[in-house]
Amino acid sequence: MKLKRFKFTKKRVIVLAVVAAILLGGFFISRSRSKNDVAMTTVQRGTVKEELILTGAVKAEKHAMLSFPTGGKISWIGVTEGQKVIRGQGLVSLDKTVLNVAYQQSLNNYRNYQAAAESALDSVKDHSSDETFAQKAIRTAAEVVRDNAYDAMIAAKYNLDNATLLSPFAGIISSLPFGNPGINVSGADTIVEVVDPSSVYFEVDADQSEVGSISVGQEVVIILDSFSDKEIKGSVSFVGLTPKIGEAGTIYKVKVKFSDVKSLGNGTKVGMTGDARFILSQKENVLYAPLKFVNTDKNGKFVNVGKPGNRVNVGTGIEGEETVEITNGVSEGDTLYD
Length: 338
Description:
Layout: H1 10-36, E1 40-42, E2 44-60, E3 63-66, E4 72-77, E5 84-85, E6 90-94, H2 97-123, H3 133-161, E7 164-166, E8 171-175, E9 184-185, E10 192-195, E11 200-207, E12 219-224, E13 232-239, E14 251-258, E15 273-290, E16 295-297, E17 300-305, E18 311-313, E19 315-319, E20 323-328, E21 335-337
Protein name: Efflux transporter, RND family, MFP subunit
Main location: other
Family: Belongs to the membrane fusion protein (MFP) (TC 8.A.1) family.
């Protein structure tokens, strides 16, 4: 088989030369850009905050999930989701027909066993000193049956008395899973949820290495994930004295009170997550720079001033999440290179 000889024509040579020029030009442009892409910043004067950032969620001191003590059929619903309610207001009721029958039957049983117990006691009333074991067994059995009947009557009365759910405090109906009468529910079902918006707070968990830096009254800045561009001011209202039960490590509960609950508006909801920034220390009118421009090696901390590689040793003070105080070595307005 003959190999086909490739013949360079003038046109092909020109095309190859153009392609080579483009590739070579791209190489030098890339090198030029890489040199020009060195990050830089300037030393500024202002406030530096040392912060502890913990993740948490919005909760409410007054937050109730109400259910019936027993099952039954819903006969009446007196509220709707989003409705304001007052303390003691009726919310939802069960059909009381079956509950009332159960109570009346338990009352009748109690009367019956009470009479039987009185008869047993009457038969041994003159034998307190010589009561036989058989007589004692009969008397005790009658008393036990009577007492059990009494307990059953109390339980039936409790179920009847609590067949209507009442709001435990003034608030808003936040959830009503069963919105229509006629639905059968069990004692395990949450029937209605009530929240007092004025009682919301932010809760975080702090481990044993962090909780020592937190104290009641300490200023906090909260940023919710749903409103990442909005800072909400608050202060620590409670720090747990004992670890939380059920946690893997030594974790303490910390509550943060919002400085102005009314300013939160309707957008802030129970369950929303976010970060709480606890201000541990703060300095004003100091020189600072972004953390990434301050380098560390065996000889200490340094920055590159004026141009890349021009090392200047510096001293540092408090360190924030993104910036660090510079105590010496540079002046305000100096240009730093990464």
